[in-house]
């Protein structure tokens, strides 16, 4: 497996599994693509749910979410435990405690299975959240966060964009997002 490692943020040791930065890769894809992974690790990409499962189930893992808005301001969220189950459980999200500056937009998705446009596991009966939000995620009721939404050039009034509601609200689409993991017991050099 070829992966992108971040050796600078907060002491390094991070394996990046998701990046959005310019809209060059279409993230409105189906189950098979999210299972396998897509994009290019030097640009926009999703590592793949099978790989994320393997990486997060060998040891206790921490996740960090780095975000940037269209003015260049940055925020982050860290969860002290992060794991994704195997495909036979639909990649259920396990999540620990939050810390950071972006606000906690992920905890409401704790315990949720992954939803794509062709496979629905959310708690929103009238609609498939992946279709409504134009991107796959661990949806509960289509709100709070979706970093795999449609990439827009600009941030306002875009409910189906790259969203982290506790920072910029429900209808602001971010310029950049990056999700990364490392062992919880990692000690920086």
UniProtKB/TrEMBL annotation:
SUPFAM superfamilies with a match to the protein in the record: Fibrinogen C-terminal domain-like
Entry-linked InterPro entries: Fibrinogen-like_C, Fibrinogen_a/b/g_C_1, Fibrinogen_a/b/g_C_dom, Fibrinogen_C-term_domain, Fibrinogen_CS
PANTHER family in the record: FIBRINOGEN C-TERMINAL DOMAIN-CONTAINING PROTEIN, FIBRINOGEN/TENASCIN/ANGIOPOEITIN
Fibrinogen C-terminal domain mapped to chain residues: 1-185
A Pfam family annotated for this UniProt entry: Fibrinogen_C
Protein name: Fibrinogen C-terminal domain-containing protein
Gene Ontology CC terms, in alphabetical order: extracellular space
Keyword Repeat: no
Keyword list, A-Z: Disulfide bond
């Amino acid at each position: 497996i070829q992966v992108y490692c971040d050796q600078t943020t907060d002491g390094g040791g991070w394996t990046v599994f998701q990046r959005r930065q310019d809209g060059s890769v279409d993230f409105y894809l189906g189950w098979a693509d999210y299972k396998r992974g897509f994009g290019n690790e030097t640009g926009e990409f999703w590592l793949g749910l099978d790989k994320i499962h393997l990486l997060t189930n060998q040891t206790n893992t921490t996740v960090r979410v780095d975000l940037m808005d269209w003015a260049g301001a940055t925020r982050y969220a860290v969860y002290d435990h992060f794991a994704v189950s195997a495909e036979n459980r639909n990649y259920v999200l396990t999540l620990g405690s939050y810390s950071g500056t972006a606000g906690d937009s992920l905890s409401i998705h704790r315990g949720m299975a992954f939803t794509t446009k062709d496979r629905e596991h959310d708690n929103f009966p009238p609609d498939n959240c992946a279709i409504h939000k134009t991107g796959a995620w661990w949806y509960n009721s289509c709100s709070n966060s979706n970093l795999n939404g449609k990439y827009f050039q600009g941030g306002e009034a875009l409910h189906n964009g790259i969203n982290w509601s506790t920072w910029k609200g429900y209808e602001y689409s971010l310029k950049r997002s990056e999700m990364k993991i490392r062992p919880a017991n990692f000690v920086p050099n």
